[in-house]
Amino acid sequence: MSIRALWVISHEKGECGTVSFSRRYPTVERRARGLAGRRYVPIPEDSDLLRPLLTELGVTDPEKPFVTSRDDCARPQRSPALEVHLEGQDGGTLWPLLAITQGELILACLPLVEVPLEPQPPLPSLPSVSQGLSLLAGLQTFICGAGGRVEGDLLASRLALLPAVLLQTCPLGTPLDTLQLGLPPAPSPAPAGPQKQPAWKPGVHRGRAVVNVALSEQVRSMQYGSRTKQDLWDVFGTVTCKCELEGVLPNVTVTLCLPPNGSPLQDVLVHPCVTSLDSSVLTANSIDDSDGSSFSGPYKFPFSPPLEPFRLCSYTSQVPVPPILGSYQLKEEESQLKLTVSLKLHESVRNSFEYCEAHLPFFNRGPLNIVDVRVSAGQLEVSREKSLLVWVLGQKFPKSLEATLGGTVAFSGQSPGPVDPLCTGLTAYIKLYFRVPDLTLSGCSVDQHSVQVYSSAKPRITTCECQHTKSTNAHKSLTVRTHMKKCTH
Amino acid sequence: PGPPMAAPPSPWLQRVASFSRSPSRFLSRASADVFLAELLRGLRDERAAESTQVLLLSLLQEYPTLLCPFSSAGEETCTALMAIYAQVPHKAVNFKCHLMLAITNVFICTSSATGEGEVKVAERVLDLLIQTVQDTNDHKDSITCRPLRALACDCLREMEACYPGLLSQKLEALYFLKQQETSTLHQAYALLYTVALKNAVHLLSRQKAIAEGDLKNLLSGNEGFVWKVMEKPLPPFPLSSTEQIPVLQTSAETRELKSVVSLLLEESYLLTAVSQSALLRELIQVVVMVQALSPALFKSQLLRLFGTMEISLLHSTLLMKGTFTDSLFTTEDENFLLKRLVGMAQHPLLSSAHKLFCMDCILHFPENRPISCNGEESLPVLVTPRLAASLLPTVFNDSGTMLRRLRLLSLVYLEADEDEVEKGVGYLFDHLMALWKIVDNYGTREVTATFFRAAYTFLYYFYPNEKFTSDLTKSLCELYSRQSQLAPNMINLIDRTQENLPESGWPIRLLQALQTQIVELPLSQMTTQSLCWHLKVLGRVAKESQVSQKTTVRFLLNLLASSGLCGSGDWRMGNAVLAVCRHLLRHPGLDQVFIELSDLLQFTMHHYEDMDIQDHARFYYTLLTNLSREKLSGVLDKGPEGGQAKVRSLSSLMAESEELSSCLTIHPTRGPVLHLLKHQLNGVASELQNSRSEHSGVEDYLKTYRDQFLSPGFSSDIVLKFHLTFAGEVEALYHKLFCICLHFELTDSNYEEVTDIDVPCLLKDRKPPVVSLTLTPRQPYPMVLRASAIFSTEDGLSWRTQLADVPVAFPDVFLPLPVPVSWSLEARGRLFDQLWRAMSSRESSQSAISLFCFQVGEKPLSDIVQSHFHRYLVSAQSSQEHYKVLLFLPPKFHILFDIKNAEDAARVNIATDSWNLLPYINSYLKSITDLDSVTVPSPEA
Question: Distances in Å between the alpha carbon of A261 and those of A267, A444, B208, B275?
Fold first, then answer.
């Protein structure tokens, strides 16, 4: 379960790309040569890998509309395990080259294949593949952090740290741990007792015991306002913990509770530090609602915490209604657009927002020129160049729980303005961002009493809940041909 | 101390970077052993910064085989690194870690551990590692040394992975270490122990007879290393289901083993997720081999694993499932796992790579009762349309996810009930149309490529469905009417569907529809650009025998007659029109368009304002009107054998087409075809010739000699002779090669450009021709030439092939002393002495004196001299075993050897006028004397 080599490639759109970092594992390569026999393809030099890899990712020759090697319609889609056809005299095919793209970075590694290469074995039969994926995911966290875009000096400084980090986490091609943000912590003395220190917990906390549990839910919703197209919304939640507790292996149990008739938590995924799970916690899933096995909690998660903050578990939930219902109508009248928007907050949702704003972008029409729009609540911000209206609703909906926007806009069709191949004609959308503190849509909750700590010192326990929401209301006053949504973060 | 160094080394940072960028290019400029020696010197340099030394070690860690191409070099490097390791102060843990890593990498990659010396090195390396890992819980060394210990564990694990069974007799010691360790390092010990245990059991299972206590003894073994596994490695563990898994045939008590495995599993929770999955995999293999162990051992871990968000642990669970099937997993478990996979394949919190992998896992799900097990993608029975509904593709997916979902869902609907099919396929088609709409709105290139892939996937599974395919045809035509630049995508889609779905009539229908659409277009609306695409499509249509070409011909005729095309005389457009005509000439329905086509060609030859086009058209017209159908297709069709030569002969008369361009382009050969074999000099016994002629008056031999160099180009070339042969058994196609042009490229700047060499022919059964390669050195260093050749084969095609690199070794650059033949031996001897004096008097800062000693072995000194230097001997006193050798290296360098046999060793006094040559001289002498020896630079050098 090893990888043969690792690459970090910077690739700006339209450029040919450079290998910013590479690491080869010659002992694994020796094994690879022995295992593959005649079918062995040696790892090429960095410069020889670059182009075939970029071709496989479909990003070479951006100025050419059609290149067979890149755009052939019958070329199998193998992502994330690419088949890279090397050029040159020896040629050969490297497989399975795992690659993930993050912004302008391409992270890639080549796992060792320990079974005969002929015929090509299925990906799931290769244990090294998931190890490689974990490694790449860790590498992504290490280089990009939670943010995403990393460039210039920051990227260079992170890459400069990489050899030292790999010396600890993957010195000989077999990953021992996943990379995390920042350098691995310094080792701490071995515990005095017989209990072994977990490998994922390099030290022991000393000082005041504190347990933080935060529950946050996100709602994604798409509302089409159409009889033929069903509105969609999905809710998913995560529980994050930060535990500062003494002892090598302190035990904590977090219990999630649902209100009496709440719908069960589905697709529960837990952190590997969870020690055991009741099978009923795992039974509900979103893809198969037939087995209404009425288990609805309490959901107990016994675990022993690592030092760093971590995601204890995540779940999805099916709630009966979206938190805000919206409708959006557009009419083209001569050279202007007539807009009507109404938003209605569901009565079950607490009317107290951290923020709430609606974005109304206009595409393929040029910059906004005349804006004559009134709102019943909140303010309107206009960004003419971006052809964007931002309706800031603030902290509260009015008493009626409804807010409306109406008026007309016109465009100066001189300069191009934003374009989008989907939002043509009267196809458009309004996108809503909001956040409600201390509320979960599923009703799932965690409080001080639901956190049990088996530890000598009494810990301070804090819990918090919140709801991030994004919802998109799409409308088209003519025929709806395609569903609309924009993903946001 | 080695030979004197060249200029002070350029900053290491730069050199290391340039090495890593392209090791081959770097090593073509500097020889590996010289560079290795420099690296080691850099490591020994106490003044060097640690960061620099770590940088140097990184090369040995990543490229041990390039830096130590022979096992002897590896052995020496290991020894050198270990010597450094021993001297590094205790607290330089980081440097020691890197040293240890380099030692392990160099050792594993270069050693075959067969020779006596190698085993000695191996013992020392393993000793170092074992010593390091024995300090559990940091008793001896402080906690700061822990990284070193962790690394030593991993190095041992890698040793065991590369030489399976090496530690198989040390299990008790390893177990003890694992039990002892309580710091986070217990993971490293646990992994090391588990790998060793698995390999030991594997080794045991391959024995024919197993005695009662063997398994027990295995666990309590505490002996040396099993060296024999280095020579004859254990075959890899058969993971795939097709191979027989070795089974330990024993009824013996397995209690100890069971408790060992249970304990490892119990403690697996304390390991990081990736290490847990590695550990689980080893244990799965142990349990598979020892059938007395029940898979139920894993049960306690399963529930923990079932809920995991960690991809590697999920994967381990699936591997477990695939291995143990219903002996560990119930049908319910199976159902649960599968639903979970489907759920994870679209989970909003997982990355898209993870989701794609989950989709792969669904398509290769290890069912308890699989219907087929051919390793191909197949849908598990339990995946129903309802279950898979959450994986329906949407336009918001990234293209990889979307296409994968489309494929998975297509498989789902292929298997589904009828009413579900209707709905499901309808959805997929709607999805395709949503993509179509984006393309229609001028979506990005990526979306366009994705749309055509999606269309291909859809067709692949549902081509028999008339309704959808005819809708697709309509949509594609509509798209083409607005965006004719998509012609290459369309043609590609048509080609691929036709190739892969030969029974589908859809490509023909699309072509017909496109033809109809194009010929009905009003000429006034056509731009040159769109016309170009239209002609491309019509050319493709004309290849189809089932499509009537009448409308095409009329369209072309109308085009030429009514548009300004003929008057414009655009050569490219004219060619595009003729390309269609050429396809038409080969069309089986030619008779139906005979008159129109001849009108068309006649019109072109009279009215097109371009001579070349007119000529082509006239030629086609002549062919059309004079040849019978059979002859016409005989002329135009590409024959199966030797056809190309014929087309080639017509090439100047014909329009550009794919077949033709294949004749006119140079093709790369698939493998190596040619080989340059060094011509062994027919040992022309050039005895020391004492020329009789007098040349009195010449006193200052040196001046006379040096004056020669004033005339430009004097003796500045070396000539190497090669046999040009076939590279082994080549395809019959290459048995007769003509007009071979050999082209050489330099890999460094030490030589002048090499001129191409032409060889008239190379025939399979004839004697290989000799080619002479003339090289003009600027600096007489060894080098490598990149060689390639262009040649033609009997069928008239041209090929380009790469030859193996041609090495120019150091002795290849030697020439005998360039003096007139008339010079007597004595004169030469005098010159030798004068040169020697000049060099040792340091008249130039470049000259140097050195000494090389070696043990004279079985081969007498005279033999060595005769076999290597007979052409260069200036004086030989065989009785006293005293020889003088003068090597001339163009353009103006000399190497003088004064070889004497002293009592205990032969001494080679060396003088040269270029001290840069010393490393090469040293390694050359080393190679020919073939024995351990030392060079002692004399004090003046």
Answer: 19, 11, 65, 41
Residue A434, pLDDT above cutoff 60: yes
pTM of the model: 0.79
Tell me if A421 and B443 make a contact (CB, 8 A cut-off).
Answer: yes
For residue B266, CA distances in Å to B187, B194, B298, B566 come to 13, 14, 10, 86
User: Which chain A residue shows the shortest CA-CA distance from B358?
Assistant: A124
Per the model's pLDDT, the better-predicted residue between B250 and A219 turns out to be: A219
Contact (CB, 8 A) for B45 and B38? no
pLDDT in tens, B722-770: 999 888 888 888 888 988 999 998 877 788 888 899 998 888 888 888 8
Q: Which of B783, B714, B712 is nearest to B754 (CA)?
A: B783
Closest C-alpha to A130, from A4, A254, A1, A285? A1
Q: Check residues A288 and A354 and name the one with the higher pLDDT.
A: A354
Residues of B in contact with A72 (CB under 8 A): 492, 496
Cβ-based contacts of B94 with chain A (< 8 Å): 164
- What is the rounded distance in angstroms from the CA atom of residue B193 to the CA atom of residue A235? 45
* Peptide bond before residue A96 is cis, with ω within 30 degrees of 0: yes
Helix (H) / strand (E) element for B676: namely strand B674-678
What HEC string does B841-858 produce? CCCCCCCEEEEEEECCCC
CB neighbours of B153 closer than 8 A, spacing ≥ 6?
B133, B185, B188, B189, B191, B192
Would you call B434 an interface residue with chain A, using a CB distance cutoff of 8 Å? yes
Structure tokens at A395: 């902290």
Cα Dmax for chain B? 114
Q: Indicate the DSSP class of residue B681.
A: P
Could you tell me if A295 lies within 8 Å of chain B, comparing CB atoms?
A: no
Nearest CA in chain A to B354: A133
Burial class (CB in 10 A: 0-12, 13-18, 19+), A183: exposed
CA-CA distance, B544 to B539, in Å (whole number)?
9
* Structure token pair of residue B659: 């077949």
Chain A residues close to B396, C-beta within 8 Å: 485-487
B146 contacts in chain A (CB < 8 Å) = 187
Classify residue A194 by its DSSP letter.
S
Q: Count Cβ atoms within 10 A of the Cβ of residue A435 and give its class: 0-12 exposed, 13-18 middle, 19 or more buried.
A: middle
**Cβ separation of B281 and A73 shorter than 8 Å?**
no
Inter-chain residue contact A71 with B343, CB threshold 8 Å: no
> Which chain A residues are closer than 8 Å to B181 by Cβ?
190, 196
d(CA B318, CA B337): 8
Q: Using DSSP, state whether B262 is helix, strand or coil.
A: helix
Q: Which of A172, A265, A364 to mutate to test the interface with B (most CBs of B within 10 A)?
A: A172
**Cβ(A286)–Cβ(A266) below 8 Å:** yes
| ipTM of the modeled complex | 0.91
Determine the pLDDT at residue A467.
63
> Which residue ranges of chain B lie beneath pLDDT 50?
1-10, 639-656, 682-689, 691, 693, 931-941
Whether A331 has its CB under 8 Å from any CB of chain B: the answer is: no
Residues B701 and A379: their CA atoms lie apart, in Å, by 103
Residue B339 has its nearest CB partner, among A116, A277, A285, at A285
| Distance (Å) of CA B448 to CA A63, A104, B153, B438, B453 | 14, 22, 52, 8, 9
Quote the tokens at residue B52: 């620099």
The CA distance from B399 to the nearest CA of chain A, in Å, is: 9
Letter for the amino acid at B182? T
- Provide the edge-to-edge strand list for the sheet that holds A93-102: A18-24, A3-10, A105-111, A93-102, A81-85
Q: Is B377 on the interface with A (CB under 8 A)?
A: yes
